[in-house]
Specification:
Helices cover 62% and strands 0% of the residues. By secondary structure, it is mainly α.
């Protein structure tokens, strides 16, 4: 129960932060991404703040034996850069640049009662489902013990 409550509080805090910072406003995000036009640099402070909080949290977790709400840490150990990683990052960036939404802000935007994030999320879920229909080579499978 504590784990679920911690996840709920974390999600609500994250969503509130996205809303206060205006990351849920596609026009604001697109203004930040438009560096060759009417660039709005204000979201750089949001990104800088996120990196600072992540850095502090990562430093703290390095000194902890175990997380507070789990049996062990789940830190990725893969460091390779492959075509799937680059392609996925490019696809994510293209989608973010086209519509001004990425998954977190889109989910938070649902609370505002607008239809656009619902369409974005439906398309994202359809893409995730379609990816599962594509046969994967055995070497592309992520091992559970990796």
């Amino acid at each position: 129960m504590r784990t679920i409550l911690a996840a709920l509080v974390s999600g609500l805090l994250f969503g509130a932060g996205l809303t206060v910072s205006q990351m849920v406003n596609p026009a604001k995000v697109l203004g930040f991404l438009d560096i060759a036009g009417a660039w709005d640099p204000s979201l750089a402070f949001v990104l800088g703040g996120a990196v600072a909080v992540w850095g502090a949290a990562f430093a703290v977790t390095k000194r902890m034996r175990a997380p507070v709400f789990a049996a062990s840490f789940a830190i990725p150990n893969r460091r390779d850069i492959d075509a799937k990683l680059v392609g996925g990052a490019a696809l994510f960036g293209i989608g973010w640049g086209l519509v001004g939404y990425c998954p977190g802000p889109a989910i938070s935007s649902l609370a505002l009662g607008r239809w656009e994030p619902a369409v974005f999320l439906a398309a994202m879920l359809a893409g995730m489902f379609a990816y599962r229909l594509i046969p994967q080579a055995p070497s592309d499978q992520i091992r559970a013990d990796a």
